[in-house]
Write a structure and sequence with these properties.
Elements: E1 12-14, H1 35-47, E2 52-54, H2 63-71, E3 81-86, H3 97-109, E4 114-119, H4 125-128, H5 133-138, E5 141-147, H6 151-162, E6 170-174, H7 181-184, H8 187-193, E7 198-201, H9 224-229, H10 233-248, H11 254-264, E8 268-272, H12 276-287, H13 292-305
Parallel strand pairs: 1-2, 1-8, 2-3, 3-4, 4-5, 5-6, 6-7, 7-8
Helix pairs in contact: 1-12, 2-3, 10-11, 10-13, 11-12
């Protein structure tokens, strides 16, 4: 394997929830993290050829990266790919804020290079994008992506990098049945026309589209995602029922079908994984072939739900 294997990755393994403390109800997701289960899911993922891991320094302010770094010690560095992020909103004042944040990520992850390094939010494209060029030239980061950028900002970052002989090589935005802003804004078409992978995060809307939760079984109290999604669960019932129905005919879950939809739309889903069964689900999702009628039906149900799941940190695409 090489550090360019991420280019062909069918999906990425998301570790945002690994930034939680691991105690029930404590953290953005309120996830319970079992170190042995994380080790098991990593083994299962790599056995299935899923070797691209997505994290960020801002996830638990280093905790996600640290937990991931421990888990990945079991593998040779050439056998997995790391995706992490520079987040302008938490950058310290200094001459090299990007390099400083990268050094923290490298230390947390126990590595000396990052395969795919993202500018997490646009903030100031002309200020931050050029700071990545010396890191590319040094080989500390191998490739650059942009996350939460609109089309004009992506194109601007691409021009800046292009002047130094580099380019935007990946795009990562919120994209799900409930939030298709990047599709409607032409970002999927722009990236696809240039062979640039589009990574879709929040495909499952933080669990709200898994079919596991509903009005009578809300998301865990005390978590930020519960505050966002529990009030929407009644409106999502028809959609989750539709996902469940399609999944039943394919011996799959509602979550598997939601991920399969994202794959069918030409994206690479970033699926949050905290338990071994999440790897099983991702493997199933990759095998599901949805028909055009399936896709039209699901998108109709999603439109009828009439909810806006754009997060506070996201701007209109």
């Amino acid at each position: 394997m090489t550090n360019d294997d991420w280019i062909l990755a069918p999906a990425a393994l998301g570790t945002w929830a690994w930034g939680d403390s691991g105690e029930h109800g404590d953290g953005y997701f309120g996830s319970e993290l079992d170190p042995a289960a994380l080790d098991q899911l990593a083994d299962m993922a790599h056995a299935a050829g899923l070797t691209l891991w997505d994290t960020a320094l801002v996830y638990g302010m280093g905790r996600s990266e640290q937990v991931l770094g421990r888990v990945l010690q079991r593998f040779d560095r050439a056998d997995y790919q790391l995706s992490t992020k520079f987040t302008p909103q938490i950058a310290a004042d200094g001459v090299d804020a990007v390099g400083d944040m990268l050094e923290r990520s490298l230390a947390n992850l126990g590595t000396d290079y990052i395969d795919l390094y993202w500018i997490h939010n646009p903030a100031d494209v002309t200020r931050w994008t050029p700071r990545l060029i010396p890191l590319l030239e040094a080989g500390t980061i191998k490739h650059v992506g942009v996350s939460n950028h609109d089309l004009a900002q992506i194109q601007q970052a691409d021009r800046i990098l292009g002047e130094a002989g580099f380019r935007v090589e990946a795009v990562q935005n919120h994209y799900s049945l409930l939030y298709r802003g990047s599709e409607r804004a032409g970002i999927l078409d722009w990236a696809g026309g240039r062979g640039i992978p589009f990574f879709a995060y929040m495909v499952l809307e933080q669990g709200a589209l898994t079919g596991r939760y509903g009005p009578s079984n809300p998301l865990p109290d005390g978590s930020a995602r519960a505050q966002t999604y529990n009030r929407l669960l009644p409106q999502l019932q028809a959609l989750t029922n539709g996902l469940t129905e399609i999944g039943r005919s394919r011996v799959a879950s509602a979550a598997d079908v939601a991920v399969a939809w994202a794959i069918a739309k030409g994206t690479r889903p970033i699926v949050g994984v905290t338990k071994p069964q999440h790897i099983d689900g991702l493997v199933r999702a990759r095998r599901i072939e949805l028909t055009g009628a399936d896709i039209e039906h699901l998108e109709g149900l999603a439109d009828a739900a009439d909810v806006d799941t754009r997060a506070a940190w996201e701007h209109v695409m």
